[in-house]
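Ligand-bound model needed. 5,6-dihydroxy-NADP.
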Amino acid sequence: MEAGDFSLFYMDNFTFYSPTYFVFGKDEEINAGHYVKRFGGSKVLIHFGGGSAQKSGLLDKIRSSLKNEGIRFVELGGVKPNPRDGLVYEGINLCRKENIDFILAVGGGSVIDSAKAIAAGAVYDGDFWDYYEGKTVDKALPIGTVLTISAAGSEGSGDSVITKEKGMFKRATTGEALRPKFSILDPALTQTLPAYQTACGITDILAHLYERYLTNTKDVEVTDRMIEALMLTMIKEGPIAVADSNDYQSRANIMWAGMMAHNNSCGVGRSQDWTSHNIEHELSALYDCAHGAGLAVVMPAVFTYNLKHDVMRFAKVAVRVWGVEMDFEHPEVTALEGINTLRRFLKSIGMPGNFAELGAKEEDIDELAHKCCYGDVNTGTTGGFVTLNEDDVKAIYRLML
Ligand code: NZQ
Ligand code: ZN
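Prediction:
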């Protein structure tokens, strides 16, 4: 039997290597310098976003921590949400000019992803964008992170997502070399987030769990159960964190769940989906909306469209996670109710529910679907759970109107 055939019926063969050193808890960011030194950094690029880390005083703490360890540094701020290639090129040049040997990302997924792109590009002779067109990253400068928003999971992943300004192509790359050497996770740092951004993060974390839950691999009970536990945690803690930005406990649970949702410990040994992410990335590339907000609109549409592919899988998550009663005569009713409950949950935490609320336009659907299936390096289809062509993707976008 071919390995591919085998994997459709049993847990797939896999390797899993996640060497990030996690430092979790209140005020741990004051030890950033210690960890940079421990992982070999002597001249650091501090990379950050649009101002929140400056305003909160976090950057000053990081500077002091590096100074206390005698570590020299230069700074590059200005990473925008949905980070662009322009700043990456700037960072690569800066690293080469200043002989940087370690990059410290202080911020959210956008800052971390930009740092990863710079880390890979700084030690590569070609154009860093090659990595976002299919080349595997096998070499990069070491990076560390100080996370300020629970969402993308980039603090524990080997992934990076960058938008190429020419053509606005938002594409991902992956590689073990991109996994952070260390990540500092202080839940208190997320308390300055607006409720909307907190909710976007919660939505993204749920999406990372769904993308793995929607699998064609049979009998993967251990990872199914891990995903369900993390989803239940998000459903319980999410609304608390949105309602009260000072609630440390909910933010602590969400922060660790966000890392666990995306470092792939829940995704090993099973096929994964990623349809919602691929379809969403076109929205955040074109409209510059928050990734999580885009996912809130995309997920119910994708799940409804793909429901018939495996009704029992959608019914399973409806019953086990959303508390829907199983209708054995009509499992599709149970499955649909699960999707509707997800929709209501997302609305309750303040997420948009359709194209108009997101700022997307019906007349762009053809372009969005074409870019999703054919743009740049894509080959005509998208999706892991169900293979979808351009017409399918158009129909899914229409469900979001
Ligand atoms: O730039 P600043 O001023 O820091 O403001 C940010 C930004 O406006 C703000 N923010 C972050 N922490 C804050 C804060 N404001 C107040 N207090 C704080 N503590 O929040 C806004 C969003 O930040 P961003 O970094 O963009 O958020 P997120 O972590 O959701 O990252 C989104 C990016 O990650 C990509 C997305 O596509 C998107 O580009 N993804 C990366 C993945 C990966 N590398 O593994 C996987 C994900 O699926 C995702 O695609
Ligand atoms: Zn995501």
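The two ends are 45 Å apart (CA to CA).
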